[in-house]
Design brief:
With about 270 residues, the protein is an alpha+beta fold. The chain is about 45% helix and about 25% strand. The protein folds into 2 domains: about 160 residues, Jelly Rolls, CATH 2.60.120.10; about 100 residues, Homeodomain-like (Arc Repressor Mutant, subunit A), CATH 1.10.10.
């Protein structure tokens, strides 16, 4: 089985950054099939453009733009790339990084698909920092990455304790984020009291219900922006925003730049 060492990914790596131990790469995937292999270090794969299939010993992921995967070190997997341009953004994390910051190396195990929109938005911000690449980008990247690990570890600690309705509402909102829900309708669907839902949602999702739905909409808009086929007005309506101005305002609040500027940094 092939072993990939630090900074190595199959394809054409167009940019590599070294941020005090972290290795950040922006890579075009050029191989239609990559046989079983593993990486020396733990890393995140964030699919910026295109599609890829990734399989490991437990699951197969159909990845499209916006998919975020975490891989533990030396976790075997394979890749299949359909026709078309595919681009991945990676953050590789040496074991020394975990040790220096007193983070348990075994806090997250195996490979898994991260669907939490808040974590994805944090990763988009790291991607943005890699394109800005100024004197503040390194410290910003470390801070954002630590926040991601904090979110993931908090989520993991709650997995065994969370009630059934938490998974149900998460699946419902991911499937129907463009629809307009009322608290009463959601409560009836989940068979819980509106007060219970309103009180406990933040406990499991780290934000209120409205913010969570907005984050889902922004995540979807980012995948549309990478395709460069739709206007901002079309993207706004397709993602469930009332109009373009609402979309731009919400996008800037969550990402820190406008949708148009985000499209520009994709070309860097």
């Amino acid at each position: 089985m092939n072993t990939l060492y630090k900074g190595e990914f199959f394809g054409q790596t167009n940019k590599t950054l070294h941020f005090d131990g972290l290795i950040i790469t922006d890579t075009e995937y050029t191989h239609s099939y990559v046989d079983w292999h593993y990486h020396e270090n733990a890393y995140f794969t964030f699919l910026i453009q295109g599609n890829v299939v990734e399989g490991n010993k437990k699951e197969i992921y159909e990845c499209s733009a916006g998919t975020l995967l975490y891989h533990q070190w030396e976790d075997p997997h394979y890749n299949i790339k359909p026709d078309g341009f595919t681009r991945g953004f990676h953050i590789e994390i040496p074991r020394k990084w975990f040790e220096n910051l007193n983070i348990s190396k075994n806090q997250l195990e195996g490979t898994f698909n991260i669907k939490n929109p808040e974590v994805k938005l944090l990763m988009y911000k790291i991607f943005k920092e890699s394109k800005i690449d100024d004197s503040s980008s390194e410290i910003s990247t470390h801070q954002l990455l630590l926040t991601i690990f904090s979110q993931l570890s908090t989520h993991k600690s709650k997995v065994e304790k969370k009630p059934v309705w938490v998974k149900q509402i998460d699946e419902l909102l991911h499937e129907s984020y463009t629809e307009k829900f009322s608290l009463t309708e959601l409560s009836q669907t989940l068979d819980i009291h509106p007060i219970h839902l309103s009180r406990d949602f933040h406990k499991y999702f780290n934000c209120n219900l409205g913010d969570y739905i907005r984050k889902l909409k922004i995540n979807q808009s980012l995948s549309f922006l990478t395709a460069n086929e739709k206007s901002l007005t079309e993207i706004a309506l397709d993602c469930g925003f009332a109009d373009q101005s609402h979309f731009i305002r919400s996008f800037k609040e969550n990402i820190g730049i406008t949708p148009l500027n985000y499209r520009k940094i994709l070309k860097k």
